[in-house]
Fold:
Amino acid sequence: MGGVFPPELIELMKAVLDDVTMTLPEARRTSAIKAEIASHILACAAKGERNNDVLKAFALGAIVESTHHSHDISPERRAV
Structure:
C-alpha cells in the first residue's frame, strides 16, 4: 500500500478509527479489531477517499464482514 499521507488525512483517519472503535462493545475493542479497522481505513484512504462518513461506513462494513465470517467457523474448527 505504501505512500505518505498528509497530516490532516492522518488526523481524519485517526478520528474515524476512534469513532468506529467507540461504536463497538467494550469487549470487542481489542488491538486486533482496531488493527483490522485501521487496515480498512488505510486501504480506503489510499484509494483517494477523504469523506469522513464514507471512511466510517467502509470501516463499519469491514467489522460486520469480519464478525460474520468469525461465526461461520464450524464447532470442530473452533476447538482447534
Q: What stands out?
A: The radius of gyration is 14 Å. The chain has one domain: 7-70. Residues 55 and 79 are 35 Å apart (CA to CA).
